[in-house]
Amino acid sequence: MKTTIPYQDLSIIYFAIATVLLPLFACIVNCCLSGRRNQISGWIATGAILASAILSIIIFSKTWNSQQIHVQQLWFTIGGTQLYAGILLNNLSSILLLLVSVIALPVHIYSTAYMKHDDNYDRYFIYLSLFCFSMLALVVADNMILLYTFWELVGFSSYLLIGFWFTRDKAVQANKKAFLMNRIGDVGLLTAIMILFAQYHTFDIVQIFGSGGLISQSTITNGLWVSPIGSLPAVWQYVAFGGIFLGVAAKSAQFPLHTWLPDAMEGPTSVSALIHAATMVAAGVFLLGRVYPIFTTGELDILAIIGCFTAFMAATIALTQNDLKRILAYSTISQLGFMVMAMGVGAYASSLFHLITHAFFKCALFLVAGIVIHQMQHIKEDNDLDIDPQSILYMGGLRKKLPFTFLVAVVAGLALIGLPFTSGYLSKDGILVQAVDWSDNKSILFRLVPIGAIITTWLTAFYVTRLIVKVFFGDFRLAQFHPHIKYHISDGGWQYRVPLLLLAVACLFPLFSWNPVLYERAWVLAGFDSIHLARVNIYHTIVPIGVNILSLFIIYWAWAVYTGRKILVFPQTGFLFHLSYREWYFDKFYNKVIVGAVMGLSKALSWFDRKVIDGFINGLSVLTITISKIAAWFDYNIIDRISRLLTFIVQITGNFVRRFQGGKIQYYLFSMLAVVLAMFILKILI
Amino acid sequence: MITLTDFLIVSAALFCIGLYMIISKHNAIQILIGIELMLNAAILNLVAFGKFDKIANSGQVFALFAIVLAAATTAVALAIILNVYKKYKTIDPRKINNLKD
Fold first, then answer.
1. Mutate which of A655, A668, A669, A680 to disrupt the B interface (most B C-beta within 10 Å)?
2. Does the CB of A663 have a partner CB in chain B at under 8 Å?
3. 8 Å CB contact between A114 and A370
4. Using CA atoms, how far apart are residues A205 and A289, in angstroms rounded to an integer?
5. How many CB atoms neighbour CB A106 within 10 A?
6. Which residue from A507, A519, A240 is spatially nearest to A361, judged by alpha carbons?
7. Cα A214 off chain centre by
8. Total domain count for chain B?
9. A578 touches chain B (CB under 8 A)
10. Residue B22 domain-assigned?
11. In terms of CA atoms, which chain B residue is nearest residue A659?
12. What is the ipTM score, two decimals?
């Protein structure tokens, strides 16, 4: 074992291995337990993730801001290449390890109650454990091959979970879509890994991306990508960037591969909480964090622009959606856009910080959504109504029925908007400030990025307020449509309340910084290489104040609009409304252009197959049958006839000759006489 | 004067009568008689041709041998016919056809 650390720290490695393997262990144990609705399986999975969370807290406390721990062992050798497998614990992976296990814990607890009445309760927890395992392993993997393996496994387990209710056609379509979109990204990532290997002859993340590693020693000069090991044409560097970007875009739902995430809402809501907070979409941003040194300035600009566009686009779509989970899904895409943009503008630390804060408040919001949908489902079933339990059009006034849920939703919503005293403020305004800083030195067009981001913040304020007002304020609209329904709903038991409470507390500022106003003081930022922490210019004051004051106005405005004050009524017609309501026509476009093209191609190929290939084969078979029929006729009529003729002749001859052997002695004598006479006559004639 | 041709004609007639008897008769003994007739035709020829060998008279001698042999064979043939009769209760050669499959 090749270690770069003193002996006493080895225990951390064992802790890390245990953290990763415990969910896998729970998964295997649950697989072995029989019984379709085994209530124990939930507690096994929860216990495993609890142990993982505790271990990851220990690991985190020991590795945060200390020397990175990198242990590896020879895995296998191909030719001259030795491949090592190992664990890399630095600030990035230890905080992600903590985040994943800590987010997964409340989700597990919540799921034990949420999925209680599902027929496939144990299968759900098997998938959930597998999902957590793959994500935990992804963050500690120390080489690109392992990273890619678990990257795939994350995609696969999310596929299983999105299609958990596989009897619903929509769920099957959604998980197929998610899987296909992720395949595109996987191919990109794989391409990038192969290019990196071709350039650096190693898969090791520390060797390639570490400080003073191979990336930092390579340059692009005169169209060549030169590294200490060799050089390739510079275009390969761009291809590698493109591949990594595709991988990130697919996993973290960035434009143009974002359309799977809203459809992924077909899975159980608790799974959505996990996917959106910690396990799935975080992988893309995490990958960006891992491979960050490879990006050139131009590539970072592309990241910033795409991130900003995604954030803006998703926020505008979220404005008009009526499906509770779909709104949250688009808000996730929007926030992920923020993170990618932050990576692009160089706000590396803020991006990861936002990933962490976002995980908590988005998880809380999804769990809230789960409770609300659960209760709506109950009302629907109790009263035999034909409604969509996720549609916010039927909700309203739920704050009186679900006071605790309402409280958590408000806290998490405010964090999502990013108002002061919440964690969202600390991370989001950091990104905004640094985006403004970044565009300062660039041309005027780059100003659009911070402006877009700030507008997105306001849009976020609007749609979050709309969501909360529609769900929790006003009157219960379902009761207006159906005045006679009976309903008695509540916040639910401790399995619902405890996770929500934990997550709501994590949405507030004290967990991340003792100073609720100045994002620069957050301890998470100090853990990463941060050059933007100094309050160098006026933007650090203007931007947060300006953005948040306007956000407050927008919140009030939205509140006023949707509680029926009718300050301004939005027309639900017109191009912009439809653009947003139809989700910018991305699905339509993809279905028409890409799916249509693929289907057309496959139809053409199928036609070719049926008509040309099959036709050729059929022609051949007809020809063969004809030839064989001719041969059969020939065989029967010529060959057989000849042989039968022969036997016939032999038979005739035999019968003829047999007559002479009659046993009549005088006949013999007569024959002899005849023969002799004949010979004499012949002799005389000749 | 009786010429050689007359002898030969008589002999041929005898032979033909014998042959006819052999072929056409339904009685083994009559067939045997036919054989005797044919033999006698041959012997007559031997005697007739014997006038060309006046010194040794080998024709007459050979005829004597043939007569003796014919007598012997006839005895044997009669014995066979007797046995055949014992076995088949008939001496019609057309009915004695057990050799046929």
1. A669
2. yes
3. yes
4. 12
5. 28
6. A507
7. 30
8. 1
9. no
10. yes
11. B100
12. 0.81
A556 and A461 in contact (C-beta within 8 Å)? Answer: no
DSSP notation for A619-642: HHHHHHHHHHHHHHHHIIIIIHHH
Cβ separation A666–B94 shorter than 8 A: yes
Task: Please give the structure tokens belonging to residue A659.
Answer: 């007559």
Q: Which residues contact A218 (CB under 8 A, 6 or more apart)?
A: A199, A225, A226, A227, A228
- Closest alpha carbon to A328 in A286, A285, A283, A281: A281
End-to-end CA distance of chain A: 117
A231 CB burial (10 A radius; 0-12, 13-18, 19+): middle
Region for residue A317 given its phi and psi (left: phi exceeds 0; alpha: psi -120 to 50; beta: otherwise): alpha
Residue A2: pLDDT band (50, 70, 90) is very low
Residue B101 domain flag? no
Residue B31 resides in a domain: yes
> Can you point out the beta strands (E) in A367-409?
none
Is there a contact between A333 and A314 (Cβ–Cβ < 8 Å)?
yes
Contacts of A95 (CB under 8 A, 6+ apart): A60, A64, A352, A356, A524, A527
8 Å CB contact between B6 and B44: no
Is the previous residue joined to A256 through a cis bond, with omega within 30 degrees of 0?
yes
Q: What integer pLDDT is reported at residue B34 of this predicted model? A: 92
CA-nearest residue to A661 within chain B is: B100
Q: What is the dihedral of CA A666, A672, A678, A683, to 10 degrees?
A: -150
C-beta separation of A26 from A48 below 8 A: yes
Full residue range of the structural domain in which residue B54 is found? 4-95
* Measured torsion, CA atoms of residues A195, A198, A199, A200, in degrees rounded to the nearest 10: 110
Residue whose token pair is 């974002």: A258
Task: Check pLDDT > 90 for residue A678.
Answer: yes
From the list A150, A130, A465, the residue with the least C-alpha distance to A271 is A130
The one-letter code for the residue type at A27 is: C
pLDDT at site A95:
87
Residue A70 belongs to what H/E stretch? strand A69-78
Check CB contact under 8 Å for A663 and B100: yes
The answer to whether the CB atoms of B94 and A661 lie below 8 A apart is no
The 3-class secondary structure across A187-252, one letter per residue, is HHHHHHHHHHHHHHCCCEHHHHHCCCCCCCCCEEECCEEECCCCEEEHHHHHHHHHHHHHHHHHHC
Task: Please report, as a single letter, which amino acid is at residue A616.
Answer: F
Distance CA A680, CA B17 (A): 19
Helix or strand run (H / E) with residue A72: strand A69-78
Pairing, β A231-233 against β A224-226: antiparallel
Residue B100 domain flag: no
- Measured between its terminal Cα atoms, the distance across chain B in Å is 57
Report the side by side order of strands in the sheet with A2-3.
A2-3, A69-78, A81-89
Interface of B with A in 39-78 (CB under 8 A): none
How buried is B38 (Cβ within 10 angstroms: 0-12 exposed, 13-18 middle, 19+ buried)? Answer: buried
pLDDT-above-90 percentage for chain A: 10
Rounded Cα distance between B98 and B101, Å, is 7
> Of residues A504 and A576, which shows the higher confidence score?
A504
- Helix-, strand-, coil-residue percentages of chain A, each rounded to 5: 75, 5, 20
What's at A14, amino acid-wise? Y
Nearest partner of A425 among A359, A333, A354, judged by Cα: A354
* Residues in chain A closer than 8 A to B24 (CB atoms): 666
Q: How many Å is the Cα radius of gyration of chain B?
A: 17
Cα–Cα distance for residue pair A421/A416, rounded to 1 Å = 12
Angle, alpha carbons A408-A328-A501 (nearest 5°)? 20
Q: What's B79's domain CATH number?
A: 1.10.287.3510
What is the per-residue pLDDT across A471-490, written as a single tens digit (0 to 9) for each? Answer: 888 777 777 777 777 777 77
